[in-house]
Amino acid sequence: MAHSKKKKSLLWEVRHADDRFAGYVFGTMHTRDQRVHQLLPALEAFLARCSVLSNEFAVFEASQNGQPAIAPVDDWLPTLNKRQQKAFRHLLTRHELGDPEMYGHLPPLLVLQALVEAILGQESSQPFDMALAIHAEAMGLTLSGIETLEEQLGILEHIPLELQKKQLIQVLNHRSKYQKQIRKQVDWYLRQDIQQLYRVSRKQLGKLRNLLLLDRNKRMAKRMVRMYSNETHFMAIGAAHLWGDKGVLSLLRKKGMILKPVRSCLA
C-alpha cells in the first residue's frame, strides 16, 4: 500500500544515467479549477532549479506567431438529431460560448475540448497549464514546447470526422454523467492518482488511444531525453501521459533516465 501511494505523484525528479540533475517532469491539467491553481506556489522551488519550462507545446506560440490555420471540415451540425442540437445549444448558452453556427466547420474534437474546459469551470482567468507558463516566465525561465502546435492540430486531420463527431455526441447524449466524470478526474488529479487518470483516459479514448495518447508518449519521451541533455527542463505534460507501460515515465526509464517521485510538496 505504501509503495502504491509513493507512486502517486504528479511531480518526478529526472536525472541522467550518471546521476546528473536533468530537471523534472510534471503532470498538468487543462482546467481553470481554483483548487488546481493553488498548486502553483508549491512548484516554485522546483521551477527555480530549471532554466526552461517545456509544455506539450509552447503555449504562447499562437499569440506570438499567429494561430496556425485549422483546416475546415464539412458542416456536421445538420447531422445532429434534434435532441443533440438542443443539448449542444444548451451547453453553449449556459457557458457563454456563442452560437452553434460558429462551430459547424471546426473539428468536433476541438469543440469538445472547449466544452470540457467550460464544464470544468471558469474560476481562474487561465487554464492551469497556461498559468504555469506565465508563472515560470515571470521567474525567468525560458518557455518551450515538446511538440509544435502544428503537430497537435495535424493529428486531427488523421481522425475521421465521423469518429470525432461520435465522441462529441456521447457527451451531448450523456452530459450529466460526463460532467460528473470530469469532476472526478479533477479529484483524482488533486490526489495525484496518475494511475487512475491514465486508466480512465485510455478507456475514454477508445480507438483513438494510440493516436492521441500512446504514439504521442513515444514522440514526447524521445524529444524530452534530447532536451534534457542540453538544459535543465521542467517538463509539463498532461497527467494522463505519465503512467502505464507505454507512458512517458516508463519510456524515459527505458532510455536510461533515473526518475524519483516528489510527492510531499503537493500533498
Account of the protein in words:
The protein is built from 13 helices and six strands. The chain is of the alpha/beta class. It has a six-stranded mixed β-sheet with strand order 4-3-5-2-1-6, with helices on both faces. The longest helix is centred in the last third of the chain and has 20 residues. It is globular, with a radius of gyration of 19 Å.
Total number of distinct structural domains: 1
Number of helices: 13
Tally the beta strands: 6
The neighbouring-strand order within the major sheet is 4-3-5-2-1-6
* Beta-strand content estimate: 5-15%
- C-alpha Rg, in Å? 19 Å
State the distance separating the first and last CA atoms.
17 Å
What series of H and E elements makes up the topology? HEEHHEHHHHEHHHHHEHE
Shape summary: globular
Determine the structural class based on helices, strands and strand pairing: alpha/beta
What's the helical proportion of residues? 40-55%
The description of the largest β-sheet is: 6 strands, mixed
What is the average per-residue confidence, as pLDDT, rounded to a whole number? 89
Give the low-pLDDT segments. Answer: none
